[in-house]
Amino acid sequence: YAVSRRTILSGSGALLAGAALWPRPLQAASAPYELVAGTGRQRLAFDGAERLARTWCYNGTVPGPLLRYRVGDRLDVAFTNRLPEPTSVHWHGLRPPNAMDGAAPLTQPPVAPGETMAYTFDLNDAGTFWYHTHFRSFNQQDRGLYGVLVVDEAEPPAVDRDLVLVLDDWVVDAAGRVSQTFGAIHEWAHAGRLGNVVTMNNADDIRLPVRAGERLRLRLVNVANAQVFALAFSGHETVVIAEDGEPVPPRRQSDVEPLVLAPGQRVDVILDATAAPGSEHAINGLTLTGEISFGRVVYAGEAAPEGRSGGPVVPLAPNARPTLDLEGARRIPLAMEGGAMGRMRGAVLGGTMMNMRELVSNGRVWALNGVAGDMAEPLVTLKGGETVIVEMTNDTAFPHAMHLHGMHFREVEREGRTVTDAPWRDTVLMGAGERVVIAFAGEGPGRWMFHCHMIEHMAGGMMTFVEVE
Ligand code: C2O
Ligand code: CU
């Protein structure tokens, strides 16, 4: 390379100071916030250089603007589509009225090019959420149509800095260009579209600057199409305080116990900067494809004068949740089948039983209960307040990340063992061959999508919906 190591370091430093650490988060005002989907270019830092990736994005950046509110605020987004194809915006993990869920075409017609749509609803849950396209997602989401949405607690915990860390992966060709090819059925039938470059806040070797004595709140968000990330901050204990936005009893993790995030999942942790000024500590990672490094935590030479590290970690106030009636609940089996090396011989699509060849020619390779995602019938119809138990069996050779819209669920059984007090989540990771049983109760009326968040699996048939009356 013609650039020296020094230039590279200062280059990614500039990148960090810009979009990457979001030092000045956008505080959504009371006036409608204008969100525009369009085409653009995004700076990424990988392989020691800055690259420009062609993207589809919100308000010109990937991730899109950090939308930040306080619990009880009203989200009021005036959305405009300036893309060459229809799109929609889904508010992942939030519980809006069904018509605001953005799951086109189930809950709304997609927003046509040049059209606008107002998304408005009350933000009753605090936590770390995200928003993303929900139309032709295998194409649109991977091109960059996603952003992070933070709803601050009424009384946020006292920290020195509150940082969003976005985990993503990119398919990069030999010349260092971000690939613009999406939708290969071969990828759909396997793990999904996995990148060969992994980034945290758009850099493959992040420098996370801290000062000794600081207490950080890190909000980790996995926006990748299909990649599962595990990561650990060497030399640092972390305390998990929320998963998928929902507070959990603070849980200490050593620097070798990884934080695991399936696509769509979020984890909030408290990290106390207890190491020595001037020291550096690797952020170690593991993906479905192997070991990686995300970069380093880099300590300034001087300690923070009045850092908050070392104080007690106070649990966050939980969001309002329904009560589950596990005894009285209906039990619904959900057989997950298909994909490469799977046993599936055929499935129903558009009311017709098709063999694998016919399915593949229709872009389908996965099925739930023998239906390849035709979205004709709900998996289950339930009443508001009614508890349903879904017994999911992953009879495929791949992991899946099942995500439910509009409601969160609790795991009640995994691999035949009863699970008690599991956190409320909106996305659950299941290994190949695993059986996971979840329970949820009907909340807002409407049709809510239930699908694998490995986007190519969803597109390839691993999707259904539940209907709340
Ligand atoms: Cu994050 Cu149906 O999506
Ligand atoms: Cu999947």
Task: Indicate the topology.
Elements: H1 5-20, E1 33-46, E2 49-58, E3 67-70, E4 74-81, E5 89-92, E6 116-122, E7 127-133, H2 137-143, E8 146-152, E9 161-170, H3 185-189, E10 197-200, E11 206-210, E12 215-222, E13 229-233, E14 238-243, E15 246-253, E16 259-261, E17 266-272, E18 280-287, E19 290-299, E20 330-338, E21 346-349, E22 352-355, H4 356-361, E23 366-368, E24 380-382, E25 387-394, E26 400-404, E27 409-414, E28 417-418, E29 424-425, E30 427-430, E31 435-441, E32 446-452, H5 455-459, E33 463-468
Question: What do these coordinates show?
Answer:
By secondary structure, this protein is mainly beta. The chain has three domains: about 5-150, Cupredoxins -  blue copper proteins (Immunoglobulin-like); about 160-300, Immunoglobulin-like; about 330-469, Sandwich (Immunoglobulin-like). The protein has five helices and 33 strands. It has helices at about 5-20, 135-145, 185-190, 355-360, 455-460; strands spanning about 35-45, 50-60, 65-70, 75-80, 90, 115-120, 125-135, 145-150, 160-170, 195-200, 205-210, 215-220, 230-235, 240-245, 245-255, 260, 265-270, 280-285, 290-300, 330-340, 345-350, 350-355, 365-370, 380, 385-395, 400-405, 410-415, 415-420, 425, 425-430, 435-440, 445-450, 465-469. The strands form seven sheets. Strands 20, 23, 25, 27, 28, 29 and 31 form a seven-stranded mixed beta sheet that branches. The protein has a six-stranded mixed beta sheet with strand order 10-9-12-17-14-15, with no helix packed on it. The radius of gyration is 22 Å and the shape is globular. Residues about 1-30 have low confidence and may be disordered. It binds CU-O-CU linkage and copper (II) ion (CU).
